[in-house]
Each structure stands twice: as C-alpha cells, then as structure tokens.
C-alpha cells in the first residue's frame, strides 16, 4: 500500500487504488471499531509491491469467566 492509502485505510468506503479490487470498503473500518470497543487496536505494516500485514491487538480480560468450561 502506498503511504497515501495507509493514511486512509480505516476510513469507511475506502477501497484500494487498484481498479480490479472489489468490496464495500467497510471491512477494515468495522474491524477497527470492534477492536476499539474491546480496548484494542489494529496495527498495519505495508511495503508497496510486496504486501501488507494487519494485526488485531486486544487485551486479555483480568477476571474472565469462561461459561463453556465445566465447573469442578
């Protein structure tokens, strides 16, 4: 992705500059909202012509109770 694309990648209705890309441009926007709603964020690293890497980072809950786990 170009530096210009990286600046706008999480905006709604943004798609890549390539004419053959398809989609609504909402996926990364929605993903960012979900990450932030859980106290996290999304990191992106991109090298033009080589590809991009996205990482979803969310904190672990301190006192999480797993309701699917059998009780002793």
Write a concise synopsis of the structure shown.
The protein has helices spanning 3-8, 27-37; strands at 41-47, 51-57. The protein is α+β, with helices and mostly antiparallel strands. This is histidine kinase.
Explain this structure.
With 72 residues, the chain is of the alpha+beta class. It has one domain: Heat Shock Protein 90. The protein contains two helices and two strands, in the order ααββ. It has a two-stranded antiparallel ribbon. The radius of gyration is 17 Å and the shape is globular. The protein starts with a helix and ends in a 15-residue tail after the last strand.
Descriptive keywords:
alpha+beta, Heat Shock Protein 90, 24% helix, 72 residues, 2 strands
Q: Which ranges are low-confidence, i.e. pLDDT below 50, for 5 or more consecutive residues?
A: none
Sheet/helix structural class: alpha+beta
- Alpha carbon gyration radius: 17 Å
Query: What is the CATH H-level superfamily?
Result: Histidine kinase-like ATPase, C-terminal domain
């Amino acid at each position: 992705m170009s530096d210009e694309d990286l600046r706008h990648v999480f905006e709604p209705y943004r798609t890549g500059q390539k004419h053959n890309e398809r989609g609504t441009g909402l996926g990364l926007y929605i993903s960012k909202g979900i990450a932030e709603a859980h106290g996290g964020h999304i990191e992106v690293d991109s090298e033009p012509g080589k590809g991009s890497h996205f990482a979803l980072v969310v904190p672990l809950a301190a006192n999480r109770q797993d309701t699917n786990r059998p009780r002793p």
